[in-house]
Amino acid sequence: MSLQGHYEPSPSGWVRDQVEAYEASGGTEANTLRDTGLPIIIVTTRGNKTGNVRKTPLMRVEHNGEYALVASQGGAPTHPVWYYNLRAAPESVLIQDGPEPFDVDVREATGEERQVWWERAVAAFPPYSEYQIRTERTIPVFIATKRV
Ligand code: F42
């Protein structure tokens, strides 16, 4: 794994607890969003100001070994901080979807490609469409591809 550095857990208690339980169990526990039963992944980024290592649970939107990372933040008016981390250091990103994290290459999707992935995202997690109605920003979608 290429992403080294000081790990700073999320200030949000439920997020921090989910990451800790997921990692401790190798992804066999805490692997869904609360009681929805819908699967999550853990995304590791580098803080765009501190350089610290950050871990963020996101919904699992997977297609042919690639993943969409949807910066919805529940339809909040602003992008989540991890959006800026991905923009600043797209080469320093890990995904954990199971027992071990792996390196990914990340790019922000635009145009038709974003639309195709947005539809996959809504199929995996229907509330994304409500989140898009709730906010004036276009919710960013990144595509993450396993580095070989
Ligand atoms: N959020 C989504 O946007 N999409 C999802 O699909 C999603 C699914 C999901 C499933 C389970 C779960 O437990 C949480 C889920 N979330 C989802 C919420 C997600 O995990 C994040 O909590 C949320 O998106 C907010 O992201 P955030 O990066 O804004 O996180 C905040 C709470 C946070 O950690 N902030 C840190 C802080 O200290 O305030 C900043 C961390 C950081 O990277 N800091 C930077 C640095 O350099 O270190 C700079 C900070 C700056 O000032 O710019």
Describe the secondary structure blueprint for this structure.
Elements: H1 13-24, E1 40-46, E2 53-59, E3 61-63, E4 66-70, H2 81-88, E5 93-96, E6 101-108, H3 111-124, H4 127-134, E7 141-146
Antiparallel strand pairs: 1-2, 1-5, 3-4, 4-7, 5-6, 6-7
Residues 10-12, 14-15, 18, 33, 40, 47-50, 52, 54, 56-59, 70-73, 80-82, 84-85 line the site of coenzyme F420.
Write a brief structural summary.
The protein has helices at 13-24, 81-88, 111-124, 127-134; strands spanning 40-46, 53-59, 61-63, 66-70, 93-96, 101-108, 141-146. Helix content is 28%, strand content 27%.
Summarize the structure in words.
- The protein contains 4 helices and 7 strands, in the order H-E-E-E-E-H-E-E-H-H-E.
- The chain is an alpha+beta fold.
- The chain has a single domain, classed as Pnp Oxidase, Chain A.
- Strands 2-1-5-6-7-4-3 form a 7-stranded antiparallel beta sheet, with helices on both faces.
- Strand 3 and strand 4 form a beta hairpin.
- Bound molecules: coenzyme F420 (F42).
- Coenzyme F420 (F42) is lined by residues 10-12, 14-15, 18, 33, 40, 47-50, 52, 54, 56-59, 70-73, 80-82, 84-85.
